[in-house]
Design a protein that fits this description.
The chain is an alpha/beta fold. Helices cover about 20% and strands about 10% of the residues. The protein contains 6 helices and 6 strands. The chain has a 3-stranded parallel beta sheet with strand order 1-3-5. A 3-stranded parallel beta sheet has the order 2-4-6. It is elongated and about 125 Å long. The termini are far apart. The relative contact order is 0.06.
Length: about 240
């Protein structure tokens, strides 16, 4: 039956005669047995509750599906295969120029190298101190003035870097927690305080002692020297010398 329907359609097309409306439908309008299901007319739209993805797009455009996803046109380009002869379109030097260090195999030169001349990162001016990466700009102390101590501490209290951090007078976070305390002489003080710090300015020490307080210098971190290290090794009982 299917073969007869196909032959009949070919015969009508060869004679230029139009096919009957509704495809190969019978007198009752139902499709004949063996006819293609699309020949009976357009398929009705999906009813509510059916698969919404099967409904056609209102603009007539194709919906995105997993089988038709692809990169945007022009966003992906094929990789150039250099060094494959003149027919590849890269010439005789494969786009690397004529000889030289960067034309050889390997990594070439390091970033910033300009052939031995003074490079750009050395020609540019540098900022001073810590902004330019120099250690000279890093402060050596956490500083506080005697006027601030008079405002925040009462009579007879002990002032130390831990007490200043507990009262949130100083920010001791990060690299500042390893720096010692230094007291400067800005402001006036009339309160008797016991101040312990790594260093005092001359004016600060005079003002604290004039108010009846005490300025105690704490021992700082001892600097390592080779001479003292060698003497310590010689004095140790397990040394062979």
């Amino acid at each position: 039956m299917v073969a007869a329907t196909v032959l009949r359609g070919r015969l009508l097309r060869s004679r230029g005669l139009p096919r009957r409306a509704g495809g190969d439908a019978g007198a009752s309008g139902a499709p004949m047995r063996g006819a293609h299901p699309r020949a009976a007319g357009p398929r009705p739209c999906a009813a509510r509750g059916d698969d919404a993805s099967a409904a056609p797009h209102p603009d007539g455009e194709e919906r995105f599906r997993l089988n038709n996803l692809s990169p945007f046109e022009g966003s992906k380009r094929p990789k150039r295969r250099i060094g494959r002869g003149y027919g590849s379109g890269q010439g005789g030097s494969a786009g690397k120029g004529m000889r030289g260090q960067n034309a050889r195999s390997g990594s070439g030169t390091r970033p910033g190298f300009e052939g031995g001349q003074n490079p750009l990162y050395r020609r540019l001016p540098k900022l001073k101190g810590i902004a330019g990466g120099m250690g000279a700009g890093v402060p050596d102390f956490n500083v506080v003035n005697v006027g601030k101590l008079c405002e925040c501490f009462s009579e007879g209290e002990e002032v130390s870097i831990e007490a200043l951090g507990a009262k949130r007078i100083m920010d001791l976070s990060g690299w500042k927690r390893d720096l010692p305390l230094k007291v400067l002489g800005d402001g006036d003080i009339d309160t008797k305080l016991v101040v312990k710090a790594g260093a005092f300015s001359k004016t600060a020490k005079e003002k604290i002692e004039a108010a009846g307080g005490e300025a105690i210098v704490l021992p700082g971190r001892k600097k390592w020297t080779r001479k003292e290290h060698e003497e310590k090794l010689k004095a140790s009982p397990g040394s062979q010398n």
